[in-house]
Amino acid sequence: MSLFKIFSKDKKESLDKGLEKSKESFFNKLGKAVAGRSSVDDDVLDELEEVLITSDVGVDTTVKIIERIEARVAKDKYLNTDQLNVILREEIAGLLEENNTTDGTDFSLPTDKKPYVLLVVGVNGVGKTTTIGKLSAQFKKAGKSVILGAADTFRAAAVDQLILWGDRVGVPVVSHGMNTDPSAVAFDAVKRAVDEQVDIVIIDTAGRLHTKVNLMNELTKIKKVIQKFVPEAPHEIMLVLDGSTGQNAFIQAQEFTKATDVSALAITKLDGTAKGGVVIGISDQFKIPVKYIGVGEGIDDLQVFNKVEFVDSFFKKI
């Protein structure tokens, strides 16, 4: 099956455009690293290591990639620098293939879980509430019914912003306002979803990276109340990370994965930065599926992550 039958032309163009800054920065650095060199030797590999680390791929993942390329060099004896782009592409694709990364093409939901309960976590400022709004729009476009729960009650802007998104997209929002009990909001949102046979309920949770104990306690309480209606809920806990923060996104991922059972990732704001390599590193280091990526401001610029398409766009010749 052709890549382009899986991914629509518009989506592919949006992805190409969203990764433009990352790609240009990466290939500019790579070009300088191999300038005047004909073969892939130790000096080139040292330069490549620096290129990958400064492209926010992360130290541990960079070491893995370099080791793979060293193995290729040893096996093939002589590799020229013209082949380096192809080898890098193949090894990064292989790394993503080995990790627990989805190959999504659409905004679908399991048919045997209704309502599908999605808890969304992440610090303030990463685009958490915006991601929920865009997700709800995409699910609605796919013919699914959606309810939102405004359980980030410690920040007035979060509640108001989610209500605005609900109005904009045309989906109901369960809200008790600011400084109310988040678990009570989650309770009412899931109860309504069950009563009205809604397909998916998305619950926005506190955007403060408070102590892990507080975070765990809060999420545990939310889980307990929603399990009164849907015993196996939540079906998914999604962590939203801001790709433009580079290595800071790694730190946030570490903190949240220690505090709760994160089962999916959304990496936002990749279009405004040259730090797209963070997707490769985070996918490799945490072995949690990168489910969605944000490559622009528009609703359709929140895409289901597809590793084949991502690598294809990242390594497409400028």
Automatic annotation (TrEMBL):
Alphabetized InterPro entries for the sequence: AAA+_ATPase, P-loop_NTPase, Signal_recog_particl_SRP54_hlx, SR_rcpt_FtsY, SRP/SRP_N, SRP54_GTPase_dom, SRP54_N_sf
Molecular-function annotations in GO: GTP binding; GTPase activity; signal recognition particle binding
A GO biological-process term: SRP-dependent cotranslational protein targeting to membrane
Keyword flag DNA repair: no
Known EC number: 3.6.5.4
Pfam families from the UniProt entry: SRP54, SRP54_N
PROSITE patterns named in the record: SRP54
Known catalytic reactions: GTP + H2O = GDP + phosphate + H(+)
All residue ranges annotated as the SRP54-type proteins GTP-binding domain in the record: 289-302
Keyword terms, alphabetized: Cell membrane, Cytoplasm, GTP-binding, Hydrolase, Membrane, Nucleotide-binding, Receptor
Quaternary structure and partners: Part of the signal recognition particle protein translocation system, which is composed of SRP and FtsY.
Annotated function: Involved in targeting and insertion of nascent membrane proteins into the cytoplasmic membrane. Acts as a receptor for the complex formed by the signal recognition particle (SRP) and the ribosome-nascent chain (RNC).
Protein family per UniProt: Belongs to the GTP-binding SRP family. FtsY subfamily.
Stated name of the protein: Signal recognition particle receptor FtsY
